Amino acid sequence: MIVELGHFALILAFAVALVQSVVPLVGAHRGWGDWMAAARPMASAQFALIAVSFAALTWAFVTSDFSVALVVDNSHTAKPMIYKISGVWGNHEGSLLLWVLILTLFGACAAWFGGNLPATLQARVLAVQSSIAAAFMAFTIFTSNPFWRTSFPPFDGRDLNPLLQDPGLALHPPFLYLGYVGLSLAFSFAVAALIEGRVDAAWGRWVRPWTLAAWVFLTIGIALGSWWAYYELGWGGFWFWDPVENASLMPWLFATALLHSAIVVEKRESLKAWTILLAILGFGFSLLGTFIVRSGLLTSVHAFATDPERGIWILMIFAFFMGGALMLFAWRGAAMEAKGVFATVSRESALVLNNVLLAVSSFVVFIGTMWPLVAEMFFDRVLTVGPPFFNMAFTPFFVALAVVLPVGAMLPWKRGNLGTPIRRLWGVGVLAIALGALTWTIQTGGSILAPIGVVLGIWVVIGAAADLWLRGGRGSPADRLRRMARLPRADWGKATAHAGLGVTMFAIAAMVGWETEDIRVAHIGQSFEHEGYTLTLTDVQRVQGPNFISTMAFVDVERDGRFIAELRPEKRVYPAAGMPTTEAAIDYGFFRDVYLALGDPQEGGGWALRTYIKPFANWLWAGCILMALGGLISLSDRRFRVAAGERRAPPQAHPAE
Amino acid sequence: MRALFLAIVLGLALPAAPAFAVQPDEILDDPDLERRARSISADLRCVVCRNESIDDSNAELARDMRLMVRERLVAGDTDAQVVNFLVERYGEYILLRPRSDGVNLILWVSAPVMLIAALGIAGVALRRRTATEKPLSPEEEARLRQILRD
Question: Same structural domain for residues A138 and A206?
Answer without folding.
Answer: no
